[in-house]
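Hey, can you fold this one?
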Amino acid sequence: MLDYFMMGGPLFMGILTLILLLMIYAAVRNGCVKELGLLALAVGFMGQLLGLFGAFEGIEQMGGVSQAMLAGGLKVSSITSIYGLLIYIVSLLIQIVKKFTGK
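Sure. Predicted structure:
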């Protein structure tokens, strides 16, 4: 799991983890859980887009890469998006539980 964290880029993965911790704190304090989930989703996709931008810049400078290298880069770039989406799903689940428990 730590490998995926490092492959996804410590900056964006760290920001997403901080948002996750804030969301858990907000859930305990009846705060803005859904908004933090949406923020995580947006930050995750921003991380992916910046990663893709850098990768495409490198491909442009090199003049081309193999299909395997391109597929590996696309896989790595989607780690932040997947993590952000998982955090958003957790925020929705927290909202559903709150509605059913009446809190």
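The longest helix spans residues 33-62. Let me know if you want another pass with a different chain boundary.
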